[in-house]
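hey so i finaly got around to running the thing on MaoC family dehydratase from Streptomyces glomeratus. pasting the sequence first so u can double check i didnt mess up the copy paste, my clipboard has been acting weird all day
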Amino acid sequence: MTTSVTISAEDVEIGTELPARTVTVTRTDLVRYAGASEDFNPVHWNPRVAREAGLPDVIAHGMLTMAVAARTVTDWVGDPGAILEYRTRFSKPVVVPDDEHGATVEVHGRVAAKLDDARVRIDLVVTSGGTKVLSEARAVVRLPSP
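ok and heres what it spat out for the 3d tokens, dont ask me to read them lol
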């Protein structure tokens, strides 16, 4: 269960840490995401094809990884519509083993800049298995007024 935290522009300073998030991604999650996104690329479900593509095993969809990171921001700000900009680069894939444990994606974020009275930039660190999987991950959000 996820708990939303509503934050206001008055409460935020540069360096404010967002609550960390750890999400487990399993092969079942990949199948569900493929159905929802209509992204049926076999590197997300077929180990043979993933290995032929030079990958160690099946990998999570990049957009799924981005969504996990974005959810960290939207839960903190309390409104998915508050994200004005969101960008990242994919640095490493999230390899999802075929077991009951899956892969974990860890997200840490902090306020890196106050852009004006209501907008802040959030920088995110997104890792899996101790490896950074998203680089330059950041969002600009409009904070609610008190």
